[in-house]
Each structure stands twice: as C-alpha cells, then as structure tokens.
Design goal:
Blueprint lengths: L2 H10 L4 E6 L14 E8 L2 E5 L2 E5 L3 E5 L5 E4 L6 E7 L12 E4 L2 H9 L11 H18 L6 E3 L4 H13 L6 H4 L1
Antiparallel strand pairs: 1-7, 2-5, 2-7, 3-4, 3-6, 4-9, 5-8
Length: 181
C-alpha cells in the first residue's frame, strides 16, 4: 500500500487504537510520519528503523514505540518479515511516550500482542478492544524498563553516508568483507 494512502487511512480512523497486522510486511522505504503513535512488534525476521538520526535494529521478538509525528523509515534485508503493529491516538501523553523506545518483548506482552490479532484492521469501535489495547500501552513503561539499546549511530558526513549505504546494500551479497571494502 502506498505510504500516503496508508497514512490517510490511519489518520481517518477515529478509534483510540487500531490494530494492523501483516504476515509479510512490504516496506515502503520512504521517510514518513503519522499523527498516531506506533507500537510495532517484529514477530519474524528483522527490520531497521531509521529515526532520530540513528539506525535501530529490531530483531525478532523486539518492539519499537514510535511517538506521534516522528519521522521514520523502515527497511529490511530479510526475505520474510512478520510485523504486529498497533497505532494509538495519544493526547496529553506522559513524557515516556514522547521518545522512541526499542525493547525486547516479554512473554506476557507477546501473548497480548498475539491476542490482539482478532481486531486486525477492524475500524468499528468495541469497548473490549479499547480496554485491552489501553492495557498494553499503559504497561509499556514497565516492559521497557530493563531493555537494551540496539542502535547504530548514523554518520553525518556525506562521504561516510555513501560508504555506509554501499556496505549496507551489499551485506546480503555473501561476498568477503575485504572485497566489499
């Protein structure tokens, strides 16, 4: 789906939260943002998340909290990526939710995310869904508390950016590192 169309769809949803799961996520590779906060869980595969001047690795069983309106871009070299995403409409949010957060997903949160699949892409409001998804978002600070940072500092020099982009685009070539260098 085109990024601008998906953002229009997301911004048109009037519920406080919206579940969007996909078994083989197609990355648009474009920088984008949306009014809704995004909680994304990588169930299978991995993805890179570029945001805030850093490249974050989201391996399997890890999640990211992306604050509303934060510009970001996702990409992957994995052949198959299974993402579980929940979007949240946030007003007057505590400071915790204003920062990008990356963390390993605890088993109980993993099961909660899987359970939320029953509301995948349903635009109609239900009190059960609203209550359940609020429980997830309200508990995120506790799940994040003991997380490790998985980011790679992004270069600022244009020459180094080109070198890093070349290396990144050829990592899957199975060529020796010396040859890529």
């Amino acid at each position: 789906m085109d990024i601008s169309l998906s953002n229009q769809l997301l911004d048109s949803i009037r519920k406080q939260s919206y579940v969007w799961f996909d078994n083989n996520w197609v990355h648009a590779h474009a920088v984008h943002g949306h009014r809704l906060a995004q909680f994304v869980y990588v169930e299978k595969g991995f993805q890179y998340l570029e945001a805030g001047g850093k490249i974050h690795l989201l391996p399997q069983n890890h999640a990211a909290w992306i604050p509303p309106n934060m510009l970001h871009k996702t990409s992957t070299d994995a052949s198959h990526v299974q993402l579980r995403t929940i979007f949240y409409r946030m007003q007057d949010i505590p400071e915790f939710y204003n920062e990008l957060r990356i963390f390993q997903v605890a088993p109980v949160l993993k099961e909660m995310i899987r359970y939320a699949e029953k509301w995948n892409r349903i635009a109609d409001y239900s009190i059960e869904e609203d209550t359940f998804l609020k429980a997830i978002v309200l508990e995120l600070p506790n799940f994040w508390k003991h997380s490790l940072s998985l980011h790679i500092p992004a270069p600022m020099d244009e020459r180094l950016i080109k070198v890093c982009a070349y290396i990144h685009s050829h990592l899957a070539d199975n060529r020796p590192v010396a040859e890529i260098a």
